[in-house]
Amino acid sequence: MAKINLLDFVINGGCASKIPAFVLESILKDIPFGTHKNLLVGSETADDASVWKINKDVAIIQTTDFFPPLCSDPYEFGQIAAANALSDIYAMGGKAISALNIVLFPISKLDASVLKEILMGANDKAKEAGIVLSGGHSIENEVPVFGLSVTGLVHPKKIVTNTNAKPGEVLILTKPLGTNQIINAHKHKKVNKKIYEKTLNYMKALNNKAAEVMNKYDIVAGTDVTGFGFAGHLAELARGSKVSFEIDTQSLPLIEGVFKIAKEKYKPCSLEKNFKYCSQNITFSEKLEDVYKTLVLDPQTSGGILMSVPEKKQAMVLKDLHKKGMTEAKIVGRSIKNINRKISIKFV
């Protein structure tokens, strides 16, 4: 059988395929979702997952994440989709324990062996994470779509959310930006194999070690950076915590080669959608090149953890992140007080 290129089946893959955040907001705002004393985190704060309290020492984290292919190889697609879904658990400061497969697949068009490769990739990533894939659900679909529904555990006092950032803290980002720019360039055959494979490896990398560091230092404010881009997810953190941020834009970690690629015309429509979502809060210094706007709005897939860290802990946290293999983790900005009660994000 000829080798399959999954990118031949999609227009927008990975987290770039998300419904725009501002559209979701308009849909969800009028739906009277229920509340409960044990629901510690729901949909109202745009957090990465929901959290349900079991007792004073244990809460359950629940999340689901799935998308069309963003890479050519089925096995690697399974790995990345699994790592991306698991990231929501880690972004909340939790430990993943089990997951279910979510499968939409054109079984009449693609050989079953392709789906088997996707599932094998996900299963191997689940083993790496120390969890069990215990089942799932599948339907036939025109385009391949894959992901996981994941369950995790967290101590109720260790939950990491969008609502806990405080003025005077520093922001640390654990992975470099630029995944979608590299993928789009790969589709156009405008990026070399080394950079493409390095990008895939970033997306395959689990964020579990970042969760361990947040737990160790009692960090309780943060998120992961995915489809709404660095600026979009930072805006959610700012709105949830009612604080402002100042970003040292040129210090942002970037994937090798992406600065040049982002100057080209491989810009997905999701850039404009992400800008619309956070435009009321963000400003860019006139000294910055336009390419930085592209990079902070670029939808990421299986991106890094963005954590808000008390200033006195920043050196220890960064040292531990580097020690645990997140060598490109960097301080990228800080939280500041709102001016005239306005939440703002300044890219300087």
Would you write up a description of this structure?
- With 348 residues, the chain is α+β, with helices and mostly antiparallel strands.
- Helix content is 34%, strand content 22%.
- It folds into two domains: 6-154, 2-Layer Sandwich (60s Ribosomal Protein L30, Chain: A), CATH 3.30.1330.10; 169-347, Phosphoribosyl-aminoimidazole Synthetase, Chain A, domain 2 (Alpha-Beta Complex), CATH 3.90.650.
- It has helices at residues 21-28, 74-91, 112-129, 179-187, 193-204, 208-216, 229-241, 258-261, 270-278, 291-297, 314-323, and strands at residues 39-41, 50-53, 59-67, 95-105, 132-140, 145-154, 170-173, 222-224, 244-247, 282-284, 305-309, 330-336, 345-347.
- Strand 4, helix 3 (112-129) and strand 5 (132-140) form a beta-alpha-beta unit.
- Helix 2 (74-91) packs parallel to helix 6 (208-216), helix 4 packs across helix 5 and helix 7 runs parallel beside helix 9.
- The radius of gyration is 19 Å and the shape is globular.
- The relative contact order is 0.18.
- The mean pLDDT is 94.
Helicity level: 25-40%
Shape: globular
Number of domains: 2
Tell me the number of strands: 13
**Cα separation of the termini:** 52 Å
At the third CATH level, what is the topology name of the largest domain?
Answer: Phosphoribosyl-aminoimidazole Synthetase, Chain A, domain 2
Number of helices: 11
Average pLDDT over all residues: 94
Which series of helices and strands comes N to C? HEEEHEHEEEHHHEHEHHEHEHEE
- Quick one: CATH superfamily of the largest domain? PurM-like C-terminal domain
Radius of gyration: 19 Å
Task: Specify the structural class.
Answer: alpha+beta
What's the CATH class of the largest domain, please?
Alpha Beta
Q: What is the makeup of the main sheet?
A: 7 strands, mixed
Stretches where pLDDT is under 50 for at least 5 consecutive residues are: none
**Strand percentage, roughly?**
15-25%
Q: Would you identify the CATH architecture of the largest domain?
A: Alpha-Beta Complex
Instruction: Enumerate the strands of the largest sheet in spatial order, edge to edge or round the barrel.
Output: 8-11-7-12-9-13-10
